[in-house]
């Protein structure tokens, strides 16, 4: 079979509509534009310009990561960033006599599946070059889009019977949209500053909210800025109006007050497991049967409150086949991608300064093989990295550490040396055996002598047994 090499070439092609997009940063980038945060200037630009210098809104970018593939493919996983309405091109080179048919399938998308894929292949002298292009359409992002949206696409080479998983990071919102500045000096404290634009309070208007409104201003319908926001104790969404929209059962300014209504409070949580209440990762709320997961443990961001606070390690161990072998791969029966171990990547922190990767371990009961691995989840896809593949476990208390093993060894040596010393001492101090056939022993005769017993008393009567008979 032919060996395939991958060459990544990024090609950006902006499709920018000629319309007024200066009022909203999210809409600007969704149309492929660049947003300038300087107040009082043009905000939405069709392309990067020095006129805004370093004040363009910076979108999140994916880490350039890739995994080595099989004997047929030199890579089986890659991550790249793509701007909305922009084109990204992946060039794949391989050796083959003829072109390989290519099938592209979207495995998962956190927004819509409105992306356009195309591929072309040229072969010359048994060297083929395939170009895979993707462009998110203007309808890809929805109103709930965030700066971090993902698409997983599987590129399958039919004639090679091999595939590569590509992860695209596509931003559907500006990070600055989630960071409004209320009562901004730029807006004369009559509004809040969002991405360089003043959003005036009721009764004020103008670019800098310094003009009294002449006509009543229609109320602005708040939109969701951050889902399950930490500002709302993860019990509600943070809205563009600067308040929390609490989930059912929660109330208060920060959604931190439990509202059970008329429910009984003595029912008790029924969601228990071998690890204890709420899988050992939480406790029941005051209302009765709902789990409240811990927020101060490693991997807390992955706990599933609706599933008994199950953590990511428990989820991965449901797919034991993915832990049965080392090396990067995509587990076909599970939504899990196994990445090559990278210590630097394993120490990543998220925007809340939490560890992105959590430590897990799994012991195969049959082989007693202990697997140490790290796990993280992005939307619906779980990534794992094997840290130590097969560390044989030992019973607790026996040889638990190198120091204990050395002490047991020294004790065994001392016991063995003591037994040898006792055996040698007995050998050299034994009583010699006597030879009874020697002449000295043969000439010894028994000495004959009689002595009257002073305690002897003469019998005074006798009895003859009538049954006695002489021989």
Automatic annotation (TrEMBL):
InterPro entries: EGF_integrin_1, Integrin_bsu. Residues 1-17 form the signal peptide. It is a single-pass type I membrane protein. Residues 176-204 form the Integrin beta epidermal growth factor-like domain. The chain crosses the membrane at residues 406-428. It comes from the Eukaryota. It is found in: Membrane. The keyword Signal applies. GO terms for biological process: cell adhesion mediated by integrin; cell migration; cell-cell adhesion; cell-matrix adhesion; integrin-mediated signaling pathway. It holds the Pfam family I-EGF_1. GO terms for cellular component: cell surface; focal adhesion; integrin complex. One of its GO terms (molecular function) is integrin binding. Keywords: Disulfide bond, EGF-like domain, Glycoprotein, Integrin, Membrane, Repeat, Signal, Transmembrane, Transmembrane helix. Belongs to the integrin beta chain family. This is Integrin beta4. It comes from Bombyx mori.
């Amino acid at each position: 079979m032919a060996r395939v090499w991958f060459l990544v070439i990024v090609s950006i092609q902006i499709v920018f509509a000629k319309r007024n997009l200066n009022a909203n940063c999210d809409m600007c980038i969704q149309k492929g534009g660049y947003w300038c945060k300087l107040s009082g200037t043009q905000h939405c630009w069709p392309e990067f310009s020095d006129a805004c210098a370093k004040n363009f809104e910076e979108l999140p970018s994916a880490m350039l990561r890739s995994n080595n593939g099989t004997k047929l493919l030199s890579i089986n996983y890659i991550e790249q960033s793509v701007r909305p309405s922009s084109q990204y091109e992946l060039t794949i080179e391989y050796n083959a006599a003829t072109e390989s048919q290519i099938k592209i399938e979207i495995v998962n998308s956190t927004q819509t599946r409105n992306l356009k894929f195309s591929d072309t292949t040229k072969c010359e002298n048994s060297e083929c070059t395939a170009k895979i292009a993707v462009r998110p359409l203007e309808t890809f992002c929805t109103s709930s889009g965030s700066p971090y949206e993902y698409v997983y696409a599987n590129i399958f080479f039919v004639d090679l019977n091999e595939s590569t998983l590509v992860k695209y990071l596509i931003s559907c919102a500006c990070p600055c949209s989630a960071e409004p500045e209320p009562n901004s000096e730029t807006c004369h404290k009559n509004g809040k500053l969002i991405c360089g634009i003043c959003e005036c309070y009721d009764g004020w208007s103008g670019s800098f909210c310094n003009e009294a409104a002449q006509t009543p201003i229609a109320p602005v319908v708040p939109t969701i800025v951050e889902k399950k926001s930490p500002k709302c104790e993860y019990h509600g969404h943070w809205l563009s109006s600067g308040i929390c929209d609490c989930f059912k059962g929660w109330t208060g300014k920060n959604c931190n007050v439990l509202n059970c209504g008329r429910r009984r409070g003595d029912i008790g949580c029924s969601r228990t497991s071998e690890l204890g209440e709420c899988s050992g990762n939480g406790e029941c709320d005051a209302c009765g049967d709902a789990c409240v997961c811990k927020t101060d443990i490693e991997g807390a961001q992955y706990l599933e409150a609706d599933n008994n606070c199950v953590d990511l390690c428990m989820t991965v161990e449901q797919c034991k086949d993915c832990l049965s072998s080392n090396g990067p791969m995509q587990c076909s029966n599970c939504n899990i991608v196994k990445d090559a171990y990278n210590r630097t990547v394993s120490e990543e922190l998220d925007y809340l300064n939490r560890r992105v990767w959590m430590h897990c371990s799994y012991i195969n009961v049959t082989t007693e093989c202990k697997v140490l691995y790290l796990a993280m989840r992005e939307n619906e896809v779980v990534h794992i990295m094997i840290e130590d593949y097969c560390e044989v476990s030992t019973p607790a208390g026996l040889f638990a550490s190198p120091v204990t093993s050395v002490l047991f060894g020294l004790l065994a040596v001392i016991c063995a040396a003591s037994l040898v010393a006792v055996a040698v001492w007995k050998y050299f101090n034994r009583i010699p055996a006597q030879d009874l056939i020697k002449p000295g022993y043969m000439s010894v005769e028994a000495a004959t002598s009689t002595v009257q017993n002073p305690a002897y008393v003469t019998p005074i009567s006798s009895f003859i047994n009538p049954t006695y008979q002489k021989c």
